[in-house]
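A further point concerns the way the authors explain their paired sequence and structure data. An entry of this sort, consisting of the sequence and the corresponding backbone structure tokens, reads as follows:
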Amino acid sequence: MKTNAYLRIDNEENFEYSRKPLIFSPGIWVNGKVYWLGNVTEKLLLQEDLSIKIKQANVHSRVELFNLYVTNHSKVGKEAKLILMQRHADSVNEQFSFVSPNEDVIFHFADKRIYLVNGLNSNGRMKQCTVQPLWNVSTERLWNCQESGKLNYQPMAKGSAASLFSLDLQMGPRETQKSSCWMIEGNEKNVVVHLNEMLLKNTLAIPDKK
């Protein structure tokens, strides 16, 4: 089955929660701490000399793509990790989520629909990936080592769950780094995988530093 592969990223709008059944929840890990953004589009972390801004881009009817801009306001370089979570909005047993090493993506199956999750920045594609029961997210069980920003790996979960992955950030003084993550919805696996490949190849979708 073919689908319209035309991808345009020319009209950014303010961030808002993703369509059901998945909700996008971003956070940032730095110096052993994680800061979740909740439903705000901008956040200033004064104690870390960092700020983050989120914009949603109109790409394709099946795609929800978010661009995240993290700015280092200090006079020295900084390292951090974006922690990008997609969680199920409703708790029903028919949901199944797993990390796919073959495609290097995360899949969610819910309501007879397939949802593919992925992301990248100038440091590469998504690094750590995990799927956790939703109740683990706000506990220490989410982490293998929070001090080093290492997520507790679990390849799959059934029922109400959240998928999480990280993108590394290495920012020079006064530098802003752009990252992108997306969720693709479809009825067939080959359709969402094809759209994911198009996004990865499309030069407009590859983030830059500024």
Remarks:
- Residues 13 and 134 are 28 Å apart (CA to CA).
- The longest strand covers residues 50-60.
